[in-house]
Amino acid sequence: QVQLVESGGGLVQPGDSLRLSCAASGRTFSRYGAGWFRQAPGKEREFVAAISWNGGAYYADSVKGRFTISKDNAEIAVYMQMNSLKPEDTAVYYCAVHYSGSYSTSIRDYIYWGRGTQVTVSS
Fold first, then answer.
1. Buried-state track 23-55, b at ≥16 Cβ within 10 A, e below 16
2. Helix, strand or coil, per DSSP, at residue 104
3. Within the chain, what is the greatest distance between any pair of CA atoms?
4. Average pLDDT, stretch 80-85?
5. In whole angstroms, what is the distance from residue 34 CA to residue 69 CA?
6. What 3-state DSSP class applies to 75?
7. How far apart are CA 36 and CA 28, in angstroms?
8. pLDDT tens across 32-64, in order?
9. Parallel/antiparallel/unpaired status of strands 117-121 and 10-12
10. Rounded Cα distance, 55 and 72, in Å
């Protein structure tokens, strides 16, 4: 059984930074891709960023240049550094494991999900 636990969310002001973490038990990210998604109130869950088993990264246009996804050396955690945060980044952020070593933007391709961490950007 794979369990994912996100952490690092919080309340910040526009322009601030946050670093989200996703710790995995039962599976490492050495063979599987991982992704971050977010869901704002009243909106559908949307793709944010993903990383493949060999470190290739892909970002949604809305966060490109501001967010960076990475894995730790032991490949049991995935991170997302979020800089220059905007109010429209406010959402619950979810970590997920891809069914393969690749990555994609489709929610349907991710088979394990964490419970999410709240990020609120407000002045």
1. ebeebbbeebbbbbbbeeeeeebebbbbbbbee
2. coil
3. 41
4. 98
5. 9
6. coil
7. 16
8. 899 999 999 999 999 999 999 888 999 999 999
9. parallel
10. 10
Contacts of 50 (CB under 8 A, 6+ apart): 33, 34, 35, 36, 57, 58, 69, 98, 103, 104, 105
Strands 18-25 and 10-12 come out as unpaired
Question: Shortest CA distance to 34 belongs to which of 54, 52, 19?
Answer: 52
List, for residues 67-78, the tens digit of each pLDDT value.
999 998 677 899
Whether residue 113 has pLDDT greater than 80: yes
The closest of 54, 73, 76, 63 to 2, measured between CA atoms, is 76
pLDDT for the residue 27: 67
Q: Hey, what amino acid is at 12? A: V
- The 3-class SS string of 29-64 reads CCCCCEEEEEECCCCCCEEEEEECCCCCEEECCCCC
Query: Tokens for 93?
Result: 């952020």
